[in-house]
Design a protein that fits this description.
Radius of gyration: 20 Å
Strand order of the largest sheet: 1-8-7-11-10-9
Helix content: 25-40%
Shape: elongated
């Protein structure tokens, strides 16, 4: 069950959100642009978001709402459509949810149910112009997440989840034969199932297991949850916790 789900979207398994890393100052400028749009008549406060590919570029929605909107967007991609609208029930009331294509990005705007898009259209266009003219150094396509950015070669697969921000990172596996990659993924999600169950036990913050050619280690540290799969022949069991600490240090360096 975990393997079939997670091979498509690991963030769904842990209840997280796939996010694109941005420098703090760029995030602040995006926040100001979106906040200005929310100040317009008819737009809900904390009701805007930018999507790139299948990940959140920046969101002012609550974490739960961000996650649900991303899942909706993945289930129903925009394709060639420039605009998509759907009514949603949020915060005890009905609203309009608009997904608007802006070049490589999708702008999400939630408005009050009695406000037609015609009322918002001019303001959305003003936002588009301001967004383009801001010349922010942001990606124009969803960047790949590489395992080498966080872990050394002994780490075969990893999953990180920040339970506060929802940030979920599941890097691409290193290049290799399809059969080998499928075996790594299958083993990872099999161990993950056991680790998740154990980490839910009060007082349990670590889980480790060795089986066949693999070592699996999981750690819950504050808001951080990390799961890593390593090759038995490449690392001794007593070295695994320090390897996990190094990975977490690398993750914190990008402010996840």
């Amino acid at each position: 069950m975990y393997f079939s789900k997670a091979s498509q979207d690991p963030s769904v398994v842990v209840g997280g959100v796939s996010q694109i890393y941005l420098e703090a100052d760029i995030g602040e400028r995006l926040d100001k642009l979106l906040a200005f749009l929310e100040s317009q008549e008819g737009v809900c406060g904390n009701g805007t978001m930018l999507i790139l590919g299948e990940s959140a570029l920046y969101s002012r929605f609550a974490l739960h709402d961000t996650r649900m909107i991303l899942q909706y967007h993945k289930a129903r991609p925009m394709g060639i459509n420039a605009l998509r609208y759907t009514p949603i029930y949020c915060g005890g009331a009905w609203h309009n949810l608009y997904l608007i294509r802006m070049q490589s990005y999708v702008l999400v705007v939630m408005s009050y149910i009695d406000k037609p898009f015609a009322l918002l259209q001019k303001k959305v266009e003003e936002f588009r112009i301001a967004f383009i003219q801001s010349r922010l150094e942001i990606p124009t396509e969803e960047p790949p997440v590489l395992l080498r950015l966080f872990a050394k070669r002994e780490t075969l697969a990893m999953l990180y989840h920040n339970i506060k921000t929802g940030c979920t990172i599941f890097p691409q596996l290193r290049p290799g034969p399809d059969v080998q990659q499928k075996e790594i993924l299958s083993s990872f999600w099999g161990f993950f199932s056991d680790a998740s169950a154990n980490l839910k036990i009060p007082g349990v913050t670590e889980f480790s297991i060795s089986r066949d050619q693999y070592r699996f280690y999981a750690r819950s540290e504050g808001v951080h949850k990390l799961y890593i799969l390593l090759a038995t022949e490449s690392v001794a069991s007593e070295s695994v916790p320090s390897i996990a600490s190094d990975v977490l240090r690398n993750l914190r360096a990008i402010n996840v």
